[in-house]
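Supplementary Methods. Inverse-folding protocol.

Structures were first reduced to a discrete structure-token string of length 149. This string, shown here, constituted the complete conditioning input.
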């Protein structure tokens, strides 16, 4: 079963974020239309729904390609992804006006304030979460579709 390994890698990569975003969209729709939450989240939800699954799929394809020559574990490969996604997401949020940098911290949607001191922990949490997701979930899906390394 060596046909189309990159297509299988792409499909294995997009499975988790696509399912997670469907759950997130369901929660958003319930909050927005049933509970009448007035936060303008519909403008923000486009970025994760369009970019994150495709990036996961492309990152998994890159793993398959690089693994032929460079034997890095899939968890470490996945842990590097936040270093690319976080700056792109922050730039998008700042340029669209969802995120503002203030003297006390980040102001998200003019509602949520995150002090700069808390941002020290964000990269470590992101790296740990992505490591675990890639090691256990994406690695399992890769083995399931026949891309076992």
């Amino acid at each position: 079963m060596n046909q189309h390994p990159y297509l299988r890698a792409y499909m294995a990569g997009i499975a988790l974020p696509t399912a997670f975003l469907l759950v997130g969209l369901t929660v958003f729709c319930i909050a927005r239309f049933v509970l009448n939450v007035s936060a303008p989240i519909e403008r923000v939800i486009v970025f994760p729904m369009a970019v994150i699954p495709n990036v996961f799929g492309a990152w998994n394809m890159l793993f398959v390609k690089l693994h032929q020559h460079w034997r890095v574990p899939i968890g470490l490969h996945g842990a590097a992804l936040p270093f690319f996604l976080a700056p792109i997401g922050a730039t998008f949020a700042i340029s669209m006006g969802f995120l503002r940098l203030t003297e006390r911290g980040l102001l998200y949607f003019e509602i949520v304030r995150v002090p700069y001191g808390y941002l020290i922990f964000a990269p470590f949490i992101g790296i740990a979460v992505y490591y675990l997701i890639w090691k256990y979930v994406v690695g399992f899906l890769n083995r399931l579709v026949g891309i076992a390394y």
